[in-house]
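Example 3.
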Amino acid sequence: MTAEISRRGFLKVSGFSVAVLLTSKGCRQAVVRKGQLDVDTDAYPAIAWIRITPDNHVTVIVGRSELGQGVHTSLPMIIADELEADWNRVKVEMAPAGKEFWDPVYQEQSTISSSSVRHMWTDLREAGAAMRELLVRAAARRWQVPREQCRAEMQRVIHAASGRSATYGELCLAAAELPLPSKSDLSLKDPSQFRYIGTSKPRIDIPGKLAGTAQYGMDVFLDGMLYALVARPPAFGATFATAIGAYDEKAARAVPGVRDVVRLPGDRVAVCAETPSAAFAGKKALAPRWTGGSHPDLDNDALDKVLDDALQKDGITVLDEGDGALSPGLEVSGRFVTPYLHHATIEPPTCLVRVAADRCDIWAPTQIQSRNVNAAAKITGLPADKIHIHTTYLGGGFGRKSYGDFVDEGVLIAKKTGQPIKLLWTREDDIRHGIYLSSSTAMAKAHYKSGVGITSWKHKVVCDPIKWEDGGTDVHATVEGVINKGRSRTYARSHFLYNVSHLNVSYVHTDRPVPVGYLRSVGFFHNVFAVETTIDALAFAARKDPLQFRLDHLNRKQHPRALALLNRVAEMSGWTKKTPENRGMGLAHYYFDRFPGSYLAQVAEVSVDIQTGVIRVHRVFCAADCGTVVHPGQVVAQVEGGTIMGLSMALKERLLVEAGGVKASNYHDYPILRMDEAPEITVHVMDSREPPGGIGDASPPLIGPAVANAVFDVVRRQTGKQVRLRRLPLTPPTVVQTLRKAPGS
Amino acid sequence: MPDVKLTINGQVHRVNVTEDEILLWAIREHLRLTGTKYGCGTGLCGACTVLADGKAIRACTETVGNNKDKQITTIEGIAEDHPLKRAWMEVGMDQCAYCQPGQIMQAAGFLRTVDNPDEEEIVAAMSAILCRCGTYPRIKKAVHLAAKLLRETPADKR
């Protein structure tokens, strides 16, 4: 267990706010009358999870950002179910920033790591059940009947014996006067009683988004606001070339519509103007000049060389378990390389900020409100409770918007200019000033002996670590997917999917100038690629079918769910049937360990143009077991979408670095997958009553290894050559080169 | 005072911009029709797609001047019960949906040129618009469905 978890739910009824604070030590109550509060009365009523009003509406206030993953539908469904609310009378609001909306594990308000349902599941159910109990008690008291004789159903409390009933709207004021139920008095539903959980309710945010009225980051306006564009150093560590004049402020100010030019820390300069076009013209007129930076010769080759050198070093061992003395048997080994990757959300970072003497308002597509509040308080000098975050919809996040850099920039400019600022990031700004998934290399060496099994597996990973602001580093992100950390925060061999006599995992951390951080699926992306192509190579060496080999060596005791999933995906894809000669099939599966964990399995059906090296992915079959499913349609959407994003990363994406900075600038030189390359995808979601696991972060890593394994299959059958692709992205030149060097069979 | 007339969704707007103003900024920042999105500024992603006299164009690479005599249609001009939006709702674009206005406008332009497209034609037309969340298989389905719904819709209601 981590720190004691506080669970909070709130019921607000007109004029009254009842705060339900459920902790592991019991339940206590705080009834607060509006007007007696020594807090901002505008903000206070909103710090609630549930609001029931006399017009018989239930409003669920969601502390999580809607990035497209559907939390503004799925989280309210959990509350509404336990509350016995009528879904047609449920409204949803995005919460402000507040401690009430902290993630109970991460102790911050954030929407990261597919944590929304897996961390909030129990809290949301308890909050809904507490409200239901309160309303039932209010009705029993009103009718002077025993509480046991009353029940809640579809937003009414019913006393069957007397035929009386009352709506939640009719009961809410009375309910607000009652003491709260203790936690032991809450009765959570049996899953068989779920009304909404497990159904695919239409997403509540989609109609507004298709109408064009939903607000994303750039869609908010304030009177007197200025548009800001920022010129940032193009190379890592570059500073203003002060000797020859850093930038031409006078020329920028001479552009009609330009109102201000402000220098920012980090050798950045912002131009603020009345219109976007004036800001663009002003930025151009600035003609800023920087030095060549700290690493003027840095490019992709130089960055790869650092990985190569590091791979020769002894790694830090994170796990070394089992008996390495067995005679090893046949050997398979491979060296893996993956590139720097970028989130490339279609909505670039952006925000709107107003800093006044007594408050700061921020409208932003953010995944990390807590951090935004702290940083804005520091920049403005205002106390944290005067920082008001208005989270807009996000046009994609994938981890990019869990970094506060762009919001901080907006706050800084608004503070310096004293004007409301709409900060625009161009696509070029986004791609050149990202926080990227680290490029990596790995060496995997495995042995197999007939009649014994996989006798050893040695795996070394090299990449830059993700550094935290508090000075810590995320080592888990480096090795996750090879082994897993589980809840105990110790590395556990039992989480490796296969039975291996001797397992040794180590890493070497490099420290290169390209800023690295979290991107959807993080370390799973490169590690699952290495593990699942190596197991395939081992199966081939052992002359076994890749599915059968996985089934034979699966740690079934620890991972019975993986067994069911492999069988399921084999059945879906017709694995055992004969595939046409010009098509190959590749399999991959893994365990997404983030507590309480999810399992995924995937089969890709591909063809390869032997002459050009172009890989065509025709069909993909996916099976997912992410425990209890709140919204099956959303799980399907996430697996589909993650597969396409994963395929984009595996086939096409590679951040170009040149002359000490990011050279890539837009979708022409950081290409992402388009419809003409997208496969047909079939998803099966397993029925399960295990606790809900994550799915959005979990879905991208399998398609890379599944495709690489399928390429091996089809090329061998077509040409007899053994093409084991271990370098991402799987571009046509890479395929052709590997083919040229490949051994025949 | 610069002053350009733009006809958007059948309504004439006077915009305080010069003729060389980028159409996207005029639409979304000056007129505040924010359904038309910024994505790349260079016509590569298609998030800003609108119709000009029925043809899908990228508003981020067009000037106001070139479009002042044209009928511009934005996502706000596509009614909720229009076959395109019905198809999009029916299929369920359950992702971030930032690109979807552009996807719908591209499909609107495309379906004016062909009323019963095959898969290949749909893919060729729709590959111009990026979706990072990966709704491509759904968009493909939705365009098929929208084409069918459009064929069933009287010409004057399309």
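Residues 351 and 364 of chain A are 5 Å apart (CA to CA). Chain A touches chain B through 61 residues (CB under 8 Å).
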